[in-house]
Fold:
Amino acid sequence: MISRKRSEFGAPIKFSDQNASSVKDAYIECTAYPDKNFTLKQLERDVGMQVVPQIKDISTQTRWTYPQNATTQYHPREFSEEEKKTLEQSKTLTDFLNNVSMSVEIALQQNEIMNVFIDDWKRLAEEEGTFGDKTDTHLKEYQSFTDLHSPTEKMITCVSWHPVIFGLIAVSVAVRLSFEERVHFSGKLLLQPSLILFWSFSDPIHPQLMLESPDDIFCFEFCPSDPNIIAGGCINGQIVMWDITTHADRIENIKVGGSRSKKVTLKPLFLLEPESNKEVMYIRHCAVSSIENGHRKVITDIHWLSDTFEINRLGSVFENRSGISCQLATCSADCTICFWDIRPQKALTPQPTEKKKEESIEIPFDVPSTFLHLDLSWKPFSKIRLSKGETTLDHCPTKISLSDDTLLYKEQDKAAAQDKAVKAGEARPYQNLEEGLANHLEPIDDFCTKFFVGTEEGEVIYTDWKMERDPETGRFMRTRLWAAEWRNVNSVIKDEMAFSTPTAKKPVSLYTVHDGAVHTVQRSPFYHDIILTVGGWNVAIWKEGVMTGPLLQSCCAPKRYTSGHWSLTRPGVFYIGREDGYLDIWDLLEKTHEPAQSQNICITMITCVKPWTFSAKQQFIAIADYFGTLHILEIPWTLSHPSTNEVSSIHYYFEREVKHLEYVEQRKKIREQEKKDMKLEIEKKKVKMHQKSKEQMEAELKMEYESYLELERNVLVNLGLIKVKETMSYVEMV
Amino acid sequence: MVNCLSDLFQAEVEETLKRIQSHKGVIGTMVVNAEGIPIRTTLDNSMTVQYAGLLHQLTMKARSTVRDIDPQNDLTFLRIRSKKHEIMVAPDKEYLLIVIQNPCE
Structure:
């Protein structure tokens, strides 16, 4: 409670200072005192210390320039020739070399004797670093393609991977009818187009391109110089050419792998896909060969010749100056092998003009005119007939395998050829096909003109396409074949025939090895002279130049073999397809008497097997079957990667087989010789016995009689019927 | 007289170098002076100059290493084994003999 005079309320207040210590009770003091509960003695102390050198800071102003490259160019010091010479002649150098050469030579010899740095243990093992499971040896199914839009049942006759584009594979389909059925249904068949389909991995339902041909194609091949040119052989004996350069962009930009994640929906036939560029286009062929002058029966095999050489009418080999493949070889069931040239030929006789007017055929405008000069008038420039000599029956070739020789140019010619090719390449070589220069060039002599042919009867023929001048008649003729079954290599037949027929030329060989038609004759991609032939129920491997027989001939398999192919990466592996849909994988390093593996691919006959390598990690094999389905399988690591030294091991194996064959030949000769010797001896003995003279016979008889007497005496003595002289010992008596 | 002698020396030099060059696997031989300038070689110029310069420096370094460890020791021979071949250097006071060999086994 505060009490004050009323008059002092609200009056201004005066403040003044006062010393606190002078007045008592003016303040209350709260003195600090140490409390034991709250005193803490700090026993540890966390202190950081640093020793720092004496720091000095100085600053100055500099001119900053940007970094620049500085270079020094120099050339090494060298002696001139005279200085070198003087030095060489000095005594010091000689002394030095004399002193030093000893140790150098010791060191060199050490290296020659043995390489001390080899790790033998490591070299013994196979290379590690596998990609994927090493034990997995099965082919894995990757994709399969079927043409669902075709009305009739088709079979696949030939398969070829696109040589450049990944994931693109071309397939030729034919109707699955026998000859009589074809004739019967010929009207219906005319309405359906015969096709080559281009399948891509990105789309298993719709083919990317469809190439149309006048009749079923039985074999085709991409041109090695330009993968947009395709040549195919028809069932009616025509060759068909396509040029798909204008559609090349459609197939080049296919993305593979990206669309696999999306579900591919199968739409029924009657629903047209509105997406525009998925519509399949029929691409018409741009040239066919002449019907009268070509083959008369189905073309069974077609090959482009290499772009390094060309052949003329007589079979001589010339250099191919154009740098592109321009010749084809075909073989057909009419027992001929023809060679064709796609360049315009000089017409030998001028065409009558009236004929030309009749023959002007309208071609659709979108067909390229690359081969217009060939259309319907294309003739082969050379034909070889595979006749059997005296009989009228001829060999019917099913497959040919040309030698892989590429012609080695001389240096300046090569440069010229390359220039020409480059120039031509700038302007699309196949558009500007010029006439062949074969007439102006010199023929090349040492080129190998021989090739292998497989026939329908199961024979393998090794023949020559070159025609030679017959010395007797002066005419050109081709080498004639003569039959010498390799089993009866007594060679008597050979010689007789050679002399009897005056037109027979240097002999070529024929072997009957297979029990059915030979459908694969293929050179190994690793060895140029090793050929695989598959036919009937067995497989044979041949070496070019070894005339006595195949290096390897398998025994008959339980099922017929219908197609075969070498592996592209492993020299000792090849794939054979069977008629029951199994694929036999042979590995010569593992077993040579039977396949190493057998895997079921499909339910019907396999018609074609083609492996292809995309990268070191991915290798595919395309297997076509009789029902028109194309299966793509992935080849596992073990089958696609060769082991170290596999190439040389297989090479040694073939060498051993060649030696074995030679040994067998030698043994045959030795045995014949032995037989002859034995016969002679027997003859001699017989003769000897008759020639004994009378005296000899008498002497012999006498000796016999005497020995008989001796025997009689002994017997009687033993029986005790004759008295013996006492001088004989007891032992002798007993 | 001096001419004869120098010819003799040159013939000897030739013979020795030829002998060394004819060993199995020898790719190249060269004689280099104390400063690394090539005197005689069987390889082409650019390679010779490169080998000479680099190996000369390496030999100097090797020699100084050996002598640092033991001053009474000296480098007599230097062999460098690489993946592809072996380089042998025989040093001397004034010259260097370099031989490149491919053991090829």
